[in-house]
Task: inverse folding
């Protein structure tokens, strides 16, 4: 487990995984579907195995459907910014499990100019990367789970 | 990727992963904390790397804290039943990524006898298992993301 802000420079493998993870969020922020395609495992792997959970949604399976789902998400968003915190990497052979908190600042649907203000929200992400034969890390599974604002132990009083 | 209901008998490795996944949900259903401890990676691995996201909550890190969080969850639940659907296994060397839909039937908080009826809910789970040196599969990361009832493309009309 590596927390980049606290530890010495990561190993080359961890650095490569963190770079892949940054590219994933860059693809979302810049609505770059070509980059998004490069981020995910190639179709011959991903058509069967790739898995994506958008917040609050049922899972999408297969790279083709996943990219279409991202096209829909990105088309709806005119402003979306990620601040990742608590980024952790667990490396096991050809697999990297990255967990992080996605702190998202976005405009509201239908409010292109952000005139109604911006919405802040938090999601717990699990991103599983696979090392391909060329040494590159590609996204195999992504899950983003909403964190409810009321969830900070407020139910302890029950 | 294996969907147990559709395909011929899984390979021994996939069968072992599915068995480990069943034990995890059995530990929840039977509120068996000893079994829950056996399900997760051992402390020497899991104190740093283990990761658990309960629905709507911020992530819990480290096996010790994770087991305490489960103790809290299980203490609150007097009835909880899982029906797993769309169980998929991706095996990569010593890592197994299991995704499934958790269909949960539970009583309502404070209603031990279920007199107020039961609540049905759906969660997208990602469970990452690691093969230990003894060949057993242990849970390294669990994330359960709520699926909102209104999420079935109802926003397409925007």
Result:
């Amino acid at each position: 487990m590596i927390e980049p802000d606290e530890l010495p420079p990561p190993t080359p493998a961890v650095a490569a995984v963190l770079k892949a993870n940054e590219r994933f969020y860059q693809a979302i922020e810049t609505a770059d579907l070509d980059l998004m395609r490069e981020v995910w495992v190639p179709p011959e792997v991903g058509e069967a195995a790739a898995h994506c959970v958008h917040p609050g949604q049922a899972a999408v399976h297969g790279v083709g459907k996943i990219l279409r789902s991202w096209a829909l998400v990105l088309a709806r968003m005119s402003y979306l910014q990620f601040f990742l915190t608590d980024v952790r990497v667990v490396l096991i052979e050809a697999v990297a499990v990255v967990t992080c908190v996605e702190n998202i600042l976005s405009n509201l649907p239908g409010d292109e100019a952000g005139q109604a203000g911006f919405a802040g929200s938090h999601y717990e992400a699990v991103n599983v990367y696979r090392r391909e034969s060329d040494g590159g890390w590609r996204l195999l599974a992504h899950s983003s789970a909403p964190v409810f604002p009321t969830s900070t132990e407020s139910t302890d009083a029950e």
